[in-house]
Amino acid sequence: MSEREARRSGYPLTIPDRLLHSEDMKRACKRRDFSEIFRLVNRRAPASYAAIAAAVTKMTSARVGDVIRGDRGIRSVAVMERIADGLGIPGHMLDLPERPWEGTPLPAAAAQNQAYASSSPDDSNEPPSLPTTGAIPGLPIVHVDPSNSADADALPEIVLVSVYVDGREQIVPINRRALLGHAIGVALQGSGPLRAVNASAEIVSPRPTRPHRLPAGRGEAAIEHFRDMWHTLVRADNLFGPRHALSGVHQQLDMLQGLLEDSRGEHRQELLKLSAQYAESAAWLHEDSMDVPSAETWTSRAMEWAMEAGDEAMLSWTLFRRSQLAAGKKNAGQAIGLAQAVQRHERALTHPMKAAAIQQEAQGLALDGDEVACHRKLDEAHEFAAIAESSGDARSGHGDFCTSSYIEIQRANCWLNLSRPDRAVTTFQTALAELPDVYQRDRTFAQARLAMAYVGIQEYEQAAAEAAAVLDVACGSGSGRTLQEAVTAVNALAAASNVPAVRDLLDAVKENAGF
Question: In which band, very low, low, confident or very high, does the pLDDT at 136 lie, cut at 50, 70 and 90?
């Protein structure tokens, strides 16, 4: 044990001397490149995102991942000092004053470290860190009078607007209703500026009158109708996105709820199962539309109906949906825990459902920075993968989307979350070539993520090509998740505006702010 390590015996994490004195670490510290510092600690210490966050204190594992990916920077000297103290980096390497633990160990140092560890994860007094991406100058400014119907009708359904987030100009997609309703500020108070992409408010049409009672002998025909319609809507979503499926799902849900009021016995059990099935679909479509509150509401409704119906398979599938929502919020612990809870319902799971749950656990592990465990789980998921088929209507049940190509797309996503864009690019390319044509929504989302991977390896022309291919499709499909990824890539590409292909893309965005 070195003298430095001995002095830090009371600290939860001390990077080893071989890493501290490596040329890579010295170079990163000299540049105050905290993205590279965290990446080196994650890979070579090795330490998970959660372990790094706990050592630094007042930081979450999600923020560690954001720093590694370059989505957020470190500007506050107070945070730099916490990083030095948490990881055991001498002050001079980061151009900071000598740290308390570098000299004679002070009792107060350990006490201060413990106090940090028990404090809240977010420091309200800390200056906001700035994004490391560039800005897109020159986006057109449109003056709209909400009371003027001509102005309102002239607007496209999705508008790209320029706003300032954390002091830097960023492109944000926002739907027409939010823009006319002065809701931009409210939308930006969410977890990120792209929370504004909630297309589902525009998609869901007024509800029809509910049927309350069917004539005798028509119950079985109605149930068959709902089953067939569900498969049709699943296929519509896979082909065209949530914009073309969500209103139909809600129409069927409204009729089902009306029928439930007067149903009893076995007939009610069947209607409850169908209601849970449609509610779970509504949850997914709202999630894909970036309407997380509605997604959570319908997931809870699906869970309630599945519980009443005694449908263990659907109950476990609602846990899968909750795990997806947790991953979307970068809550690694909850995403992992809920995915594991799904797998405990083994007797109710088909092989594809099990594969979906296992790969979902892998995504949580990637968010947590656990590369080895993540890929071990993805390998395991392949053992239960669905057989690739071309219908895309879930005739074989929940999880039938979880084919080998889907799992490999998720592996590419995990590589990206693990800050390995080089591995992500090749994995995306191979998986996309094997993805069945019917899964167009999954294809465009993967292309948007591929654009970000290309940015990560500084292949800007390819990144611009992928982003351009995705933008128009994403706006038309209503997939807010895909649009969020595409716009993130566009914002990241702004720093490379000297590349002709990138400049062409930025000009196209400025000239066609509405898609």
Answer: very low
Q: Which helix (H) or strand (E) holds 171?
A: strand 168-175
Rounded to an integer, what is the distance from CA 289 to the centroid of its chain?
A: 12
d(CA 109, CA 453): 41
CA atoms within 13 Å, Cβ hemisphere of 181: 11
**Cβ distance 141 to 164 under 8 Å?**
no
Q: For residue 389, which of 352, 349, 361, 428 has the smallest C-alpha distance? A: 352
Higher-confidence position of 48 and 105: 48
Nearest Cα to 287, choosing from 299, 300, 277, 302? 299
Q: Please answer whether residues 94 and 84 qualify as being in contact, where contact means their C-beta atoms are separated by less than 8 angstroms.
A: yes
Q: Residue 88: exposed, middle, or buried by beta-carbon count in 10 A (0-12, 13-18, 19+)?
A: buried
pLDDT at 134: 42
Query: What is the total residue count of the chain?
Result: 515
Range list of H helices, 57-166: 61-69, 77-87, 107-117, 149-154
User: CA nearest 460: which of 421, 429, 434, 433?
Assistant: 421
Name the β-bridge partners of 318. none
Closest by alpha carbon to 470, among 458, 483, 457? Answer: 483
Q: Mind listing the pLDDT tens digit for each residue in 145-161?
A: 444 444 444 445 566 66
CA distance 270 to 217: 15
Element spanning 164, H or E? strand 158-165
Q: What span, in angstroms and rounded, lies between the C-alpha atoms of 365 and 281?
A: 25
Which is more confident, 365 or 59? 365
* 203 neighbors 243 (Cβ within 8 angstroms): yes
> For the segment 177-227, what is each residue's pLDDT rounded down to a tens digit?
555 554 444 444 444 434 445 555 555 544 555 555 665 556 788 899 999
Please list, in sequence order, all residues whose beta carbon lies within 8 angstroms of the beta carbon of residue 49, skipping any fewer than 6 positions away.
42, 61, 62, 64, 65, 68, 332, 367, 368, 369
Beta bridge partners of 173: 160
Contact 356, 320 (CB under 8 A): yes
CA nearest to 141, candidates 178, 179, 177, 168: 179
* pTM given for the model: 0.67
Cβ atoms within 10 Å, residue 44 = 15
Q: What is the pLDDT of residue 97?
A: 92
Grouping H, G, I as helix, E, B as strand and the rest as coil, residue 327 is helix
Asked if 357 and 349 count as a contact pair (C-beta separation under 8 A), the reply is: yes
Residue 342 has pLDDT above 50, yes or no: yes
Q: How far apart are CA 303 and CA 305, in angstroms?
A: 6
Report the distance separating Cα 289 and Cα 158, nearest Å.
12
* Tokens standing for residue 103: 């000299």
What's 101's DSSP letter? G
Contacts of 139 (CB under 8 A, 6+ apart): 160, 161, 162, 171, 509, 510, 513
As separate numbers, helices (DSSP H) first and strands (DSSP E) second, the chain gives 26, 2
